[in-house]
Design goal:
The complex is a heterodimer of chains A (461) and B (215).
Chain A (H helix, E strand, L loop, with lengths): L1 H8 L15 H6 L4 H4 L3 H15 L3 E3 L6 H5 L3 E3 L7 E4 L26 H15 L4 E7 L1 H9 L2 H8 L1 H24 L4 E5 L8 H21 L3 E5 L8 H5 L5 E3 L6 H11 L2 E6 L1 H6 L3 H13 L7 E5 L9 H12 L1 H12 L20 E6 L6 H17 L4 E6 L3 H10 L6 E4 L2 E5 L5 H18 L1
Parallel strand pairs in A: 1-4, 4-5, 5-6, 6-7, 7-8, 8-9, 10-11
Antiparallel strand pairs in A: 2-3, 10-12, 12-13
Chain B lengths: L2 H11 L3 H13 L4 H21 L5 H25 L6 E6 L7 H12 L3 E4 L6 H11 L3 E5 L8 H10 L8 E5 L5 H7 L3 E2 L3 H16 L1
Helix pairs in contact in B: 1-2, 1-3, 2-4, 3-4, 4-5, 5-9, 6-7
The chains are: A alpha/beta (461), B alpha/beta (215).
């Protein structure tokens, strides 16, 4: 629900924390597209982001997560990859650390027609038209510090000591780039403008105050004047800088797992700033299982003293290969926290007693048995789609097949899942064999699989 | 410790490169041996910076300017160190793995290693496994240090481990890994010899490994 996120950004108490999956290149993985395809082809990006919207039912959603868009327009060389966003490989303002960088003039500020900006705006328009009424959309902009480092390279860090005035001028330029990008994205209908500045975690509070407090305060004020909400994303251990970030008056900040969520939340409360985060990207989302993800999300939600000023979100851009079922589990935890808390409890019970579970004699079935294991198809979007696929097959094949749903919310079904070895939910089995997990089959695929199962049953006689 | 050595350490910690250079010359003029200036002035100063970095008291820019100041001091000392026959404490090759262009963390580790008196061969970014092996062989390195920032490039570290193990260097060099997504579990899984969570600890571990290997 978009409204839930908007009310959170207005610092109102809400019925549940909004959920914003940071699906950048991961979105492409849902439709089989590479990161490069996702970040260059508007139709593929739109199709992928719509799949994110369909499967994960977000309250808010970033449109394009690529911190190199502005840098590319300003002359940085990029190296592309199949499974992560491009990296900056050359810096146009690089050079000797004994000379300050020559700050570009305002005519260098990217125009709407430069680089991949037309692609970004195209995707934004399509997403706005399709889901803009129900999902708050985020326009992401590379923040002024990280953008300056893209332009200048690592000399930026020593410039902060050697050329204080010149480096301040460079930050002022990157701030103006950010403002221009914010204009484009607000015009394209973005509800939230997020400045993503991972390198803020690498500087001291004193340097933040010297160089960043001014530009960021201007940026946040500007976005507010333009009628949008603002967010300040940081990666890494930025604990010491959370307070000074809040002092620039963003509507929200977003942190990753290197920052203690509760401690940061308390600081944000002091300034009445919403905070988003910080589901661990690698250890939980990429490498954990569905139960780990549900537990992590429930624990985070339960750690909040009040239902206010908190957005459930990954720590940063989700890894490309994040398993779909893990994100589905988090989405479910966000939307049905009480039910998922019980599921996690059932799963965690020291030993699940499977003695009462009687499995069918699959190799003696006279007609195919379609078993769908779901978190709860009434609540979980992906589970609902998996059940819809099964119902459609039932409509097609009628009495020629049997079909049953097992919802994980019931303890006896947890035992059945354990006994069957069901890896994640939703999963669809035919005659005791795992056919589809997390990814919903097309009608043609499922019908074909069932036809083959009918033949197998017939062959058994 | 003499006053001038303390001053060198203090100036280095503040990143005052020209003043460090002048103070090192002054110390030489006072007849202090180059190896003492290096150990008790420059490296002592970098030790303080490393400890502060580990404790989140200083950050990337502070380490970079301190390391730059150290290098200026070492430039003045180098001819004297050579004539004094001062031995390096170890040799490491370092690089960011193939497909990964991020070098801030790798540069910090390089500087911290140098701050411990190790000779470091920096292979840059996007380094292929065989390049690590070739460089280690050519330079007689005891350590191969690999950095990665991305979850998608960290599997390249396993390829470096495999390349080293497939060469005659197996058992003769130790492999260190680090970077934001790396954990001790991951290092164990791929068969790396050492993982540390930050650059300062990496330097301590590197020195320790080199001492062990030369013992």
């Amino acid at each position: 629900m978009k409204d839930l996120l908007i009310r959170t950004l207005k610092h109102e108490e809400v019925e549940r924390a909004p959920w914003v999956p940071f699906a950048g290149v991961h979105a492409g993985s849902l439709k089989g597209y590479t990161a490069t395809e996702m970040l260059t082809d508007a139709d593929k990006a739109y199709e992928s982001l719509m799949e994110v919207n369909r499967l994960y039912r977000p309250d808010g959603q970033p449109v394009i997560f690529d911190l190199q868009i502005e840098a590319e327009c300003l002359g940085c060389g990029l190296v592309w990859a199949d499974d992560c966003p491009p990296s900056v490989s050359t810096h146009p303002l690089d050079g000797s650390d004994e000379e300050p960088a020559e700050v570009p003039g305002d005519d260098a500020i990217p125009k709407k027609t430069d680089g991949r900006i037309p692609y970004v705006l195209d995707v934004m328009k399509k997403m706005k038209d399709s889901v803009g009424d129900t999902t708050a959309l985020y326009g992401l902009i590379c923040g002024p510090f990280t953008l300056a480092s893209h332009l200048r390279g690592n000399n930026l860090f020593t410039d902060m000591y050697d050329f204080e005035d010149e480096v301040a001028d460079l930050f002022d330029f990157t701030k103006r780039v950010c403002m221009q990008m914010a204009d484009y994205y607000i015009e394209a209908g973005m509800d939230v403008i997020a400045f993503v500045d991972p390198l803020i975690s690498q500087i001291s509070t004193e340097h933040f105050e010297q160089y960043m407090s001014g530009p960021y305060t201007e940026l946040m004020d500007y976005v507010r004047r333009r009628g949008a909400f603002s967010s300040f994303f940081v990666c890494g251990d930025a604990t010491r800088n959370v307070e000074v970030m809040c002092q620039t008056h963003p509507d929200s900040i977003s942190i990753d797992e290197n920052v203690d969520l509760k401690a940061a939340y308390d600081i944000c409360q002091k300034y009445n700033v919403a905070i988003g985060g910080n589901i661990p990207l690698t250890s939980v989302m990429l490498l954990g299982n569905q139960q780990d993800n549900m537990k992590c999300a429930v624990d985070m939600l339960d750690s909040m003293p009040v239902k206010k000023n908190y957005i459930l979100a990954p720590g940063c851009d989700m890894p490309y290969a994040t398993p779909v079922e893990n994100v589905i589990g988090i989405a479910q935890a966000a939307q049905e926290t009480d039910a998922v808390r019980e599921m996690v409890k059932n799963y965690q019970a020291a030993e699940v007693d499977t003695s009462g579970v009687v499995l069918p004699e699959y190799d003696k079935l006279t007609k195919p048995l379609v078993e769908v294991f779901t978190l709860d198809s009434a609540q979980c979007a992906a589970c609902g789609y998996m059940m819809s696929a099964a119902y459609a097959a039932k409509d097609t094949f009628g009495d020629a097949i049997d079909m049953v749903e097992y919802k994980y919310i019931y303890k006896e079904n947890v035992a059945r899942c354990v006994k069957m070895g069901v890896p994640n939910l939703p999963s669809l089995y035919i005659n005791g064999k795992l056919k589809y997990k997390s990814i919903i089959p097309t009608k043609a695929e499922l019908d074909q699989a069932i036809r083959e199962a009918i033949e197998e049953c017939k062959a058994r006689g | 410790m003499s006053e001038i050595l303390e001053e060198i350490s203090s100036l280095l910690q503040k990143g005052r490169a020209p003043k460090v250079k002048a103070a090192v010359q002054q110390a030489l003029d006072q007849g202090i041996p180059a190896s003492t200036i290096l150990q008790d002035g420059l490296l002592a100063g970098m030790d303080v910076v490393g400890a502060k970095f580990k404790n989140n008291e200083v950050f990337v820019p502070e380490v970079l300017v301190a390391a730059r100041a150290m290098n200026k001091g070492v430039e003045v000392l180098r001819p004297y160190l050579v004539s004094d026959g001062v031995e390096e404490k170890g040799v490491a090759v370092i690089g960011t793995v193939k497909g990964d262009m991020h070098d801030i963390g790798k540069n910090l580790v390089r500087m911290m290693l140098e701050g411990k008196g190790l000779r470091v061969i920096d292979l840059g970014v996007d380094v292929a496994p065989e390049t690590f092996v070739d460089a280690a062989r050519e330079n007689g390195a005891q350590l191969v240090c690999c950095s990665a920032l991305l979850t998608t490039t960290m599997p390249e570290m396993k390829n470096v481990v495999d390349a080293v193990n497939a060469s005659e260097l197996k058992g003769r060099v130790k492999i260190m890994v680090g970077g934001a997504p790396i954990t001790q579990e991951y290092a164990d899984e791929i068969g790396a010899d050492c993982y540390t969570p930050d650059a300062a600890t990496a330097a301590e571990a590197a020195l320790h490994l080199c001492e062990q290997m030369s013992a």
